Amino acid sequence: xxxxxxxxxxxxxxxxxxxxxxxxxxxxxxxxxxxxxxxxxxxxxxxxxxxxxxxxxxxxxxxxxxxxxxxxxxxxxxxxxxxxxxxxxxxxxxxxxxxxxxxxxxxxxxxxxxxxxxxxxxxxxxxxxxxxxxxxxxxxxxxxxxxxxxxxxxxxxxxxxxxxxxxxxxxxxxxxxxxxxxxxxxxxxxxxxxxxxxxxxxxxxxxxxxxxxxxxxxxxxxxxxxxxxxxxxxxxxxxxxxxxxxxxxxxxxxxxxxxxxxxxxxxxxxxxxxxxxxxxxxxxxxxxxxxx
Length: 292
Ligand SMILES: NC(=O)c1ccc[n+]([C@@H]2O[C@H](COP(=O)([O-])OP(=O)(O)OC[C@H]3O[C@@H](n4cnc5c(N)ncnc54)[C@H](OP(=O)(O)O)[C@@H]3O)[C@@H](O)[C@H]2O)c1
Description:
With 292 residues, this protein is an alpha/beta fold. The protein has helices at 23-36, 47-50, 52-60, 97-111, 130-139, 154-161, 187-194, 208-211, 215-230, 236-245, 260-269, 276-287, and strands at residues 10-12, 40-42, 71-76, 78-79, 92-93, 116-121, 144-150, 171-174, 199-201, 252-255.
């Protein structure tokens, strides 16, 4: 299995349905992302109540040649209650062999592609039988280039990895200046140990950072602005991303905006270099106290 290549900034498609675009507008967004060097798109079967993959696939079908310029990620394992899945009676997890295979094959149909670059198990389930997941991954060889997990603890990651004869390539986790648990719960340590690069969802706190509704976000907005000024007028979101990109595990932020100017700012943020002291000043603003 060759090593995967993802763009330094990943475009999340979770909110694609909310943007209310027609297929040509969706295609334009995809093209503009590619022009910016954002070649990796993050999906899940459930986004938009099981609709976002189809919306993306419909746009991609207008210019199928773009497929070779991009990497498509999808996820499976969460069952949502929605009119689009009347058989789902309870919000729950499903990671059995047949469920994973059927979900991935459905993602391929919806995205109108013959392969996924990466399939993630969306959430760890207490009912996950690692051998069954391994069987599903084996059955999907040829249709899925790489496999990974999302929101897994290090021991859950190790359990699944122990049943595979190829490496899981990422753990997609929540991390931002607004949510820092992964700095201390061992997830990032494991990524370094295994030399895999994490993907970070809600890298801007899902937008909560900008609303300044909590004491932590109020402190952060001040410090991020100060550091942005020192770095020649970089914007708040750029400094918040530079803080993530400073981590030695070399993460990929997965952004949730549909606004091209915000995605362009994120790409520019990959060139910013914080000092370690600036990084800790942001940590201190988030935590509300200095390091021990
Ligand atoms: N694996 C998982 O369990 C999991 C869970 C959640 C999400 N995800 C993935 O992660 C992606 C990103 O998640 P997210 O949407 O929570 O991430 P996010 O990028 O942290 O948040 C996006 C929100 O921030 C707002 N925003 C961005 N820049 C802004 C700025 N400069 N000023 C004001 N508001 C700004 C956006 O508003 P605008 O839209 O107006 O720009 C949007 O509402 C999703 O699309 C999905 O692919 C994965």
